[in-house]
Amino acid sequence: MRFPRSGSSLATLVACLVALVTAPSAHAADPPLRDLADAKGKVIGTAVTGSRLTGTYGEIAGAQFNWLTPGNAMKWGSVEPARGSFDWAEADRIVDFAEAHGQEVRGHTLVWHSQNPNWLTNGTWTPAQLSRLMNDHIALEAGRYKGRVAAWDVVNEPFNEDGSYRQTLWYNGLGVDYIAQALTAARAADPDAKLYINDYNVEGVNAKSTALYNLVRDLKARGVPIDGVGLQAHLILGQVPSTLQQNIQRFADLGLDVAITELDIRMQLPPDTAKLAQQAADYKAVMNACLAVSRCTGATVWGFTDSDSWIPDTFPGQGAATPYDENYAPKPAYRAIHEALGGTTAPPTGACTAAYSVTSQWSTGFTGQVRIACSGAALSSWKADWTFGAGQRVTQAWNATCTQSGATVSCSNAPYNGTVPDGGSVTFGFNGSWSGSNPAPTVTLG
Ligand code: G3I
User: Fold this and answer.
1) Atom nearest to 303 CA in ligand 1
2) Could you say which EC number(s) this protein's record lists (predicted)?
3) Do residue 310 and residue 380 come from a single domain?
């Protein structure tokens, strides 16, 4: 739930508060994602915001995921806003929460060009000073969490799209050697943490991922400590790279782990049934590509709810990129992850049901309705399917879009009634034709 920015009406604020109060609790499929992932020895993680780890947000973060990544709390600008003045509160909170919930932590991130403190960015440093600053920062932060962070994104986003090195404070001051220095410092600070280089647009085989490949191959050959690569996977609807699995495999073949570190799949708003179905297929494709390669450790989503996603702020008009909607209702993408991890193919939310009834009937026609009700679960979109057993045909529907092919009818929500909150229901109706008999079919909710 995003609160309205200044200038929004009181009515909007009240609507937000009501929605908050009535937000469905953390009901999703059983077993939770983390149990399925644990059984496969895989990571299913989420980025989190420390201040939100209470209530429904905290329940879901704790119940569904086996790894957490601080979305911002461990970045240099967060932990040392003024030189020598440290703020570990949010990072500590996340690490404590993870330990209390039996979760691992992915540290993010030690050396980056972005979200650095102003004192660092605006300073003028000799190479020796810069090297000292970087090494001290790594020693301090990775040392602080020694034994409590399972993997570190040591270096974040070192490449340009064409595979050349990004011109950053670090590269410009220290040359490409800053990467080896950073990894070496991280290993010294926490010998048990897995050390990663993490980047975006490196999911498929392309110039950028090939540059990353060449870098980590050379680092390994030189004996520089490197355990894995992070493929961020900030993807666009319908655009999962076809070479994703091949790309993961080539890194694995170097003897490196591969992690999907920041998975989200954005779409043009508003979402609709077709987009959410495509998104679910995309999430499943990413999960399957990872699961097909034993050295792919698993996937972390970059925020589990659309209310905690960076997308709308960065790509105006786009969003709905995560597996849960803004009111914590699991989306088809959640189900896709669940299924990819080996969950059953039961309907998305076990406690939403559909009931078919004939409300009136005459010599050749009838009026029917389907009521979809949720209890202990919620839906953000729905599809109700059934197969007529006696030649009936739907001739007209309302409050849903229905198509019939042979005996099979498929009805999906109208733009205005896709949401079925916990404890709520929606009903749609239709007219049909029949002859002989008019038995009620069983409706499947998808
Ligand atoms: O904390 C301040 C708040 O006090 C202020 O009122 C507000 C005003 O806009 O800004 C808040 O800070 C924002 C911060 O997120 C926390 O919400 C920053 O403006 C905003 O720039 C920052 O965005 C983060 C972004 O990194 C910065 O590049 C996103 O949350 C975070 O999800 C995103 O994460 C990165 C990964 O670290 C690396 N890969 C790409 C990914 C997406 O950009």
Assistant:
1) 32
2) 3.2.1.8
3) no
Q: Would you tell me how many other CB atoms lie within 10 Å of the CB of residue 172?
A: 14
pLDDT of residue 345: 63
Closest ligand 1 atom to residue 309 Cα is: 32
Helices (H), 22-117: 33-40, 55-64, 76-79, 89-100
Domain that residue 414 falls in: 2-20+349-444
- Look up tokens 């005996």; give the residue: 407
Q: Is position 157 annotated as part of the catalytic site? A: yes
Query: Residue 21 above 60 pLDDT?
Result: no
Q: Mutation test of ligand 1: which of 72, 155, 264 has the most ligand atoms closer than 8 Å to its C-beta?
A: 72
pTM, whole model, 2 decimals?
0.77
pLDDT of 82 higher than 90: yes
Going by their DSSP bridges, the two strands 425-433 and 365-374 should be labelled as antiparallel
Q: Is 262 a catalytic residue?
A: yes
CA 428 to ligand 1 centroid distance, Å: 42
User: Is the shortest distance between the CB of 278 and ligand 1 below 6 Å?
Assistant: no
User: What does pLDDT average to over the chain?
Assistant: 91
CATH number at residue 421: 2.60.40.290
Q: Give the end of a domain, one of 285, 306, 340.
A: 340
Please indicate, yes or no, whether residues 303 and 192 belong to a single structural domain of this protein: yes
Q: Looking at the structure, tell me whether residues 143 and 240 fall in a common domain.
A: yes
The one-letter amino acid at 182 = A
pLDDT (0 to 100) of residue 23: 37
Q: Are residues 16 and 29 in the same domain?
A: no
| Closest residue to atom 36 of ligand 1, CA basis | 71
Q: Are residues 355 and 277 in the same domain?
A: no
Q: What is the sign of the dihedral through the CA atoms of 386, 355, 399 and 365?
A: positive
CATH of the domain at 205: 3.20.20.80
Number of domains the chain is built from: 2
Judge if 264 and 410 occupy the same domain: no
116-123 long-range contacts, CB within 8 A, separation 24+: 116/75, 116/76, 116/77, 116/169, 117/76, 117/77, 117/80, 117/81, 117/82, 117/83, 118/77, 119/82, 119/83, 120/76, 120/83, 120/169, 121/169
How remote is the CA of residue 102 from the centroid of ligand 1, in Å? 27
For the segment 409-430, what is each residue's pLDDT rounded down to a tens digit? Answer: 999 999 999 998 876 789 999 9
Q: Looking at the structure, tell me whether residues 303 and 363 fall in a common domain.
A: no
Q: pLDDT band at residue 346, thresholds of 50, 70 and 90?
A: low
* 358 CA → ligand 1 middle, Å: 53
**Per-residue pLDDT tens for 296-339?**
999 999 999 999 999 999 999 999 999 999 999 999 999 999 99
Answer with the one of 340, 367, 387 that is the final residue of a domain. Answer: 340
Do 235 and 335 lie in one domain? The reply is: yes
